[in-house]
Specification:
90 residues; mainly alpha; 78% helix
Length: 90
């Protein structure tokens, strides 16, 4: 097997395993992961233009997640991260 084929197979396997992992994550787990990501990133990006708006979205998203509305919570948390210039992990 040549090196190019081996590299291509490895990259393909990595993308497939990442997609499979993301597909197996529940919305409640996404909520937790995004909340944690935001809480870590706001320290570095607290001076972003939309930081105040992002903090409000983070609180609203966390409340939605706790109320069992995980899909709505995930959307708000993802937007909060985008507002501070961070790509959501999920």
């Amino acid at each position: 097997m040549n090196a190019r084929t081996l590299i291509g197979a490895t990259v393909t396997a990595l993308f497939m395993s990442t997609a499979a992992f993301a597909a197996s994550t529940t919305p409640a787990q996404q909520c937790t992961a995004l909340e944690k990501q935001f809480d870590q990133e706001i320290v570095k990006h607290g001076t972003a233009a939309k930081a105040a708006q992002a903090k409000t979205l983070r609180m609203d998203g966390g409340k939605a997640c706790q109320a069992g509305k995980s899909d709505a919570g995930v959307k708000k948390l993802e937007q909060a991260l985008k507002d501070i210039g961070v790509k959501p992990a999920s």
